[in-house]
């Protein structure tokens, strides 16, 4: 028995992730909260005091970003002089330090507080460990053939930087009867 409704000819749209759904709402709520807090503090103290706080946060954030960038460049320069890859131990907190500096530069008191928290070394270590565990877990849970394979291949590099020679295998789709010629190996 038919209902008279046409059957859709397009494939079903995949579900949106939670982050993609709630990120714009969270960003809007954060902006409203920042503006509200700035007006409350300006009413309690003065507008000039709030202006000085925002300028001080911008200057401190730029100093922090400059320092973290200089530290990352020194780490890279030392690694190139040694002839190896940059060590992750010296630059583990640089990304979070730069993020903290960026949050200090953004006008607002909540972003300044979060930026200052990211400048504390124990907080940087805790967030770094949590991010690494989460990244590894997501990598293990990902389906084969997705982007996780590229990350796995990037992790399996030789310490001397040499490329391991291999062969590219092209998987044919079912029903694809097109003959393919083998590709020549890549040479450097």
Summarize, please.
This is FxsA family membrane protein. The chain has helices at residues 18-44, 47-82, 94-105, 109-118, 121-141, 147-155. The chain is mostly helical and 188 residues long.
Model description:
- The protein is mostly helical.
- It has 6 helices and no strands.
- It has helices at residues 18-44, 47-82, 94-105, 109-118, 121-141, 147-155.
- Helix 1 (18-44) crosses helix 2.
- The protein is flat.
Distance between the termini: 65 Å
Order of helices and strands: HHHHHH
DSSP summary: helix tally: 6
Radius of gyration, taken over Cα atoms and rounded to an integer in Å: 25 Å
Beta-strand percentage range: under 5%
Low-confidence runs: none
Number-wise, the strands total 0
Query: Can you summarize the main beta sheet?
Result: none
* Overall 3D shape: flat
Helix content: 55-70%
| Helix/strand class | mainly alpha
Mean pLDDT: 79
Which key features would you list for this structure?
single chain, 188 residues, mainly alpha, flat, transmembrane helix, FxsA family membrane protein
Secondary structure elements and pairings:
Elements lengths: L17 H27 L2 H36 L11 H12 L3 H10 L2 H21 L5 H9 L33
Helix pairs in contact: 1-2, 2-3, 3-4
